[in-house]
Amino acid sequence: MTMQKGTNLRTRLKSDTVSAHNRVDAVMSGYDLTIACGLARFLQIHQTALQQTMPMLRQSGHDFEPLPALIEADLAALGHKPVSAPPLPGGQLDGDPLGYAYVVAGSHMGSKILNKRRLRSSDANVLRAGRYLIREDAGLTWRSLMAQLEGLEAKGEAQDLVVAGALTCFRCFENAALTEGNA
User: Fold this and answer.
1) Cα separation of 175 and 49, whole Å?
2) Which residues contact 85 (CB under 8 A, 6 or more apart)?
3) Total-model pTM
4) pLDDT range class, residue 16, cuts 50, 70, 90
5) Could you give the CA distance from residue 115 to residue 44 in angstroms, rounded to a whole number?
6) What is the separation of C-alpha 41 from the centre of its chain, rounded to a whole number of angstroms?
7) Helix, strand, coil shares, percent, the chain, to 5
8) Are 49 and 176 contacting, i.e. CB atoms less than 8 angstroms apart?
9) Quick check: 1 pLDDT over 50?
10) Are 48 and 27 in contact (CB under 8 A)?
11) Which SS3 state, helix, strand or coil, does residue 8 take?
């Protein structure tokens, strides 16, 4: 990859993870968030990926602890039970925790758009199941993380590990989508 002078880690992450991001978006966009089963599958995918990545997210310096409880409450509003994550493919998480934080915090910024879709539902249960998508402090987490990443150089071994973490986190979401989508 050719880095432009002045490129920071935020820019590199966006560039180096675009394919992984697009793959996850393509899978996730197939869920209709206006119907209970579509929203439940979407939430179960996030729940599975978060269960698998939470050890790294806890080490990132950003607070993702409330997310599993928000998903469980939304699943309950939809009449669905929480899922248990299968073992990780490959058995362990690779990379730096900041990469995981980048993926999950970014996902929550995209949730604003998804929530607008959910709000078009005529299903009262779907309308009650919005806690995860409307997490109040998502913007604060994203801005804090972006400031941190913008202050870091793009190149280096430590930065390579952050990119590896982001790619591993995207794979966890993609694998969860493929697994949950067939359930």
Assistant:
1) 8
2) 47, 48, 49, 51, 52, 176
3) 0.92
4) very high
5) 16
6) 14
7) 65, 0, 35
8) yes
9) no
10) no
11) strand
Q: Which amino acid is at 67?
A: L
- Cα 146 → chain centroid: 15
CA separation for the pair 101, 129 (Å, rounded): 24
What is the C-alpha separation between 10 and 17, in angstroms, rounded?
11
Residues 111-151: tens digit of each pLDDT: 888 999 999 999 999 999 999 999 878 888 999 999 999 99
The angle formed by the CA atoms of residues 170, 176 and 180, to the nearest 5 degrees, is 150
Distance CA 153, CA 126 (A): 43
Helices 157-181 and 18-28 cross at an angle (nearest 10°) of 20
Q: What is the mean pLDDT of the chain?
A: 91
| Two structure tokens written together for 113 | 């758009």
The CA distances from residue 86 to 89, 92, 112, 152, 179, in Å, are 9, 12, 28, 34, 9
Site of tokens 């039970």: 81
Task: Evaluate if residue 32 carries a pLDDT over 60.
Answer: yes
Q: What does the block give as tokens for 2?
A: 């050719």
Look up residue 7 and give its two tokens.
């490129």
- Token code pair at residue 129: 């199941």
Q: How many angstroms separate the CA atoms of 11 and 17, rounded?
A: 10
